[in-house]
Amino acid sequence: MSAVIETSGLIKHYGTVTAVERLDLEVQEGDLYGFLGPNGSGKSTTVRMLLGLVFPSAGRIRVLGRNMPAEGGAVLPGIGAIVEEPGFYGHLSGARNLALIEAARRDDTRAGRRRRIGDVIDKVGLEGAARRPVKAYSTGMKQRLAIAAVLLRRPRLVILDEPTNGLDPQGIHEIRDLLRELVAQGTTVFLSSHLLGEVELICNRAAIMSDGRLLAQGDVSQLLAPTGRVRVATPDVGAAVELAPSIAGVRVHDRTPSSVVLALDGKAPEELNRALVEKGVRVRELVIERRRLEDLFLDLTGHQTADRSTPSEGPRDDAAG
Question: Sorting pLDDT into bands at 50, 70 and 90, what band is 321?
Answer without folding.
Answer: low
